[in-house]
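Researcher: Next sequence.
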Amino acid sequence: MKTSRVEIGTSDGVMPAHLAEPGGAGPFPAVVVIMEAFGLVPHVEGVADRLAEEGYVALAPDFYHRELPDNKVGYDRLDRKSTRLNSSHSSVSRMPS
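Model: Next structure:
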């Protein structure tokens, strides 16, 4: 298995993502691993890695990329998580239709 940090171009700049790829010759099926409200934390990267071990290319984008570098929340910080969710909800509701 191979893992790497990749960058995805967006209209708001670059979005980092964790990419996990199975070993061997492809082609392989692919999945997008959606992060939890806590951010692209090691647990989410581990989920992508386990999927790669099962034969999938797994990409876990960092949807909080606009808040880098302090965009991850520990599981013990529920107060900060709820603030981040409210902030993200505001951003989505301002998106043009």
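Model: The longest strand covers residues 2-10. The first helix runs from residue 42 to 53.
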